Amino acid sequence: MVDRIWVPSNWARGVLGDNGVDAITFRPDGPVMTNIGNLPGFKFINVGKYEERKATGEMIKAFDDEFAGEKDVWFILSCFNHFDKDHDLRATIRALELRDPGRLLFVPRVTTHKDLTKLYRFCNAFLGASRSEGWGLCHMEAAACGLPLVTTIYSAPSEWAAGHGYFLDYGMTKVKVPFFTSRDGDYGEWAEPNWEQFRHTMRHLVDNPDEAKQRGQAISDHVRRNYDWPVTAKYGADMIRRIAVS
Questions:
Q1: Buried b (16+ CB within 10 A) or exposed e, 208-242
Q2: What is the CATH number of the domain that holds 210?
Q3: How far apart are the first and last CA of the chain?
Q4: Which residues contact 202 (CB under 8 A, 6 or more apart)?
Q5: Residue numbers of the domain that contains 44
Q6: Confidence (pLDDT) at 14
């Protein structure tokens, strides 16, 4: 509802203004991470916070249900939650009671964009079946690196990845695990992905690696052409000009 936002520092301005992707760094061609072992076959990946909103546990469980006991299909995760000091990833995974946890590979949090791009290029598809995303930065960066995107057709990714993602249907559900306070106890709703469709989509990608690669290249071209930082900066500059003459 506002026309302008005033912030107290250049850092805060940067947080608001950097809504885009560094297309020079995040691109399909370039070096690949080599220090996490030789994993033949198809490799899914998820990067980001481990939390209910991002449905990390449900994605892991669906992957295990679909591929337990199969060789040459992997799920690589670089997940963290530094907002929850009590978060215990090992205990969380044990509680899922997976049939084949050996199909999962957990990578420590990657601290540089250069290494993150190497990790993305090591993999074949990004799994991001979030219940809601204000932007989906990891989704966009993985897509820029040439990974086909599996995500919910809801919130921000449904807009910027339109026509290029593998989208999941959903139903709206009440937020069960809030990450904010509410006086009346109403935390709103978010999207619950169709998990059966999620499993079918993963299977389709594994069975059709050439299509996955082609779709990955297409979404990379789309993201790097339309959401590169210079492009988003031009949008911002044009908006400032319109404000100045209004």
A1: eeeebbebbeebbebbbeebbeeebeeeeeeeeee
A2: 3.40.50.2000
A3: 17
A4: 44, 62, 63, 66, 67, 125, 127, 150
A5: 26-245
A6: 67
Structure confidence at residue 46 as a pLDDT band (50, 70, 90): very high
* Listed range (32-46, 79-93, 136-150) with the worst mean pLDDT: 79-93
The answer to whether residue 147 is domain-embedded is: yes
Contact status, residue 116 vs residue 84, Cβ threshold 8 Å: no
**Whether the Cβ atoms of residue 92 and residue 77 lie closer than 8 Å to each other:** no
How many Cβ atoms are within 10 Å of 68's Cβ, its own excluded? 14
The percent of residues in the chain predicted with pLDDT above 70, rounded, is: 95
Q: What amino acid occupies position 174? A: K
The answer to whether residue 192 sits within a structural domain is yes
**How confident is the model over 154-205, as pLDDT tens digits?**
999 999 999 999 999 999 999 977 666 777 778 889 999 999 999 999 999 9
188 assigned to some structural domain: yes
- Reported pTM: 0.89
> Looking at this protein, which amino acid is placed at residue 126?
F
Task: Give me the percent of the chain exceeding a pLDDT of 90.
Answer: 69
Overall domain count for the chain = 1
| Residue 95, SS3 per DSSP | helix
125 phi/psi in degrees, rounded to 5? -160, 150
CA 160 to mean position of chain CA atoms: 13
